[in-house]
Amino acid sequence: MTPAARLAAAADILDILKGTRKAAEEVLKDWGRNHRYAGSKDRRAIADKVYQCLRSRERLSFAMDSDSGRSLILGALHLLDGVSVDEIDALYTGEGYAPPKLSLAERNRLSAGEGEAPQWLEAGLPAFVSERLKAVYGDDWLKEAEALMLPRAPIDLRVNGDREPIRQGLEMLGYKPELTPYSAFGLRLPADPPPNVRALPAFRQGIIEIQDEGSQLAAFLAGAKPGMTVIDYCAGGGGKTLGLLQAMQTLEGKTSGRLIASDVEKTRLNNIKPRLARAGLEAEFRQLTTDGDGLEDLIGVADLVLVDAPCSGSGVWRRRPETAHKLTEEEVARLHELQSAILHRASRLVKPGGLLAYATCSILPDENDMTADRFEADHPQFKPRPIADAVRVPQITSDGADALAKLANGSHRLRLSPGTSNTDGFFVALYQRKA
Ligand SMILES: C[S@@+](CC[C@H](N)C(=O)[O-])C[C@H]1O[C@@H](n2cnc3c(N)ncnc32)[C@H](O)[C@@H]1O
């Protein structure tokens, strides 16, 4: 494909993305399957352009006064890549598979430059999100916003066992794995070139799983130990389930205790089964009604309940930038209500003296501190459990434990983010039910 044809394809894909809830990764795969003439270099260049536009979508659509795929691409070429209008003219010839020539309006837009763009646009985020980030991070908000949206995220792995031999094995295969600083079971692969982890024998054998270090930490901080009865209340997908089971292993590597994975979505619960099977692990499964029915026999019984609540997913926007501009304030308010209801229902399962952990992969205070505040006000029988008391576990490195305790600053709440911990954005709040 010519460079111009690649740009035309990227614009088409951006238009498709506007009208679908599918992930960008999936839409790009579909496009590749339907356009067999595109080679791997073409697909790569097209994907790079699509993601570049998605990461700066708000800024580009503001500058171009349009959010069509074509406008976003033109804006990216000129504003982000520094391609001049004359050079764009040479690409946009309308001949063969090249995009149609520039219109007068487009030429004027490009020549006008960006003008007085509001600062929040630089981060590519919706305005209300930037306001929230300012409230949480103060002067550092723009740094946080850029880290959240602009760089491609590395691929983190969680190793079911000793990570050093796996690191060496990956190195022998030509990868450049690093040890994650906080999780003692984590390895980090650079985003570029994208590693095909699912094709690795270690993945097929369940020795490695793809899981961001922040997500690993959320499971490890919850406080699971061998012998416990643990409920992974919003388990769908199973990332935390595996981390919890890892923490429930004895020194001999045997899981001890009982883990119940529950969720309202049967298909999501079913997705956990092959992951557990690959890793040779077991759990019980319960499908819940939306009112939380389905665990009545476990009220007041659990040593630990983890609530990895449904959320905006704003903490993972560096991986899924296409979802950022679709989030609305109304949706965030709905999520806050849902999280509060779920946390209340799940808390009934904790036995006196037992533990409760609340987690989201969101960076928005509405879903994090505000949900935690509300829970604490309504549930005085739960006392805060400081993060510093939860970090000294075998799954967290000792330097990592120090750093996380420092980050939590005496609190029972921890905020992880691409800007502060080089992880996805995660929030964890820990509680213990009074005896
Ligand atoms: C953030 S995801 C869980 C991710 C999972 N823990 C992991 O680590 O892979 C939130 C889950 O909550 C589930 N959920 C939504 N509403 C729920 C409810 N009312 N009660 C329990 N789970 C619910 C969703 O189906 C979804 O699987």
CATH topology of the largest domain: Rossmann fold
Number of helices: 20
What is the CATH-assigned architecture of the largest domain? 3-Layer(aba) Sandwich
Q: What level of helicity do the residues show?
A: 40-55%
Largest beta-sheet characterization: 8 strands, mixed
Hey, roughly how much beta strand do the residues contain?
5-15%
Tell me, what is the CATH class of the largest domain?
Answer: Alpha Beta
Strand elements, count? 12
Q: How many domains?
A: 2
Structural class: alpha/beta
- The CATH superfamily label of the largest domain reads Vaccinia Virus protein VP39
Overall radius of gyration: 23 Å
Low-confidence stretches: none
Chemical compounds bound to the protein: S-adenosylmethionine
Tell me, what's the shape?
globular
- The averaged pLDDT comes out at 94
Distance between the termini: 68 Å
Family: Belongs to the class I-like SAM-binding methyltransferase superfamily. RsmB/NOP family.
InterPro entries: MeTrfase_RsmB-F_NOP2_cat, MeTrfase_RsmB-F_NOP2_dom, RCMT, SAM-dependent_MTases_sf
Keywords: Methyltransferase, RNA-binding, S-adenosyl-L-methionine, Transferase
GO molecular function, one term: methyltransferase activity
Description:
This is RsmB/NOP family class I SAM-dependent RNA methyltransferase. With 435 residues, the protein is α/β, with parallel strands linked by helices. It folds into two domains: 3-117, no CATH class; 213-433, Vaccinia Virus protein VP39 (Rossmann fold). It is built from 20 helices and twelve strands. The strands form two sheets. Strands 5, 6, 7, 8, 9, 10, 11 and 12 form an eight-stranded mixed beta sheet that branches. The chain has a four-stranded antiparallel beta sheet with strand order 2-3-1-4. α1 (3-18) crosses α3 and α4 crosses α5. The longest helix is centred in the last third of the chain and has 19 residues, at 329-347. The model has no long low-confidence stretch (mean pLDDT 94). The structure holds S-adenosylmethionine. S-adenosylmethionine is lined by residues 215, 233-240, 263-265, 268, 288, 290, 292, 308, 310, 342.
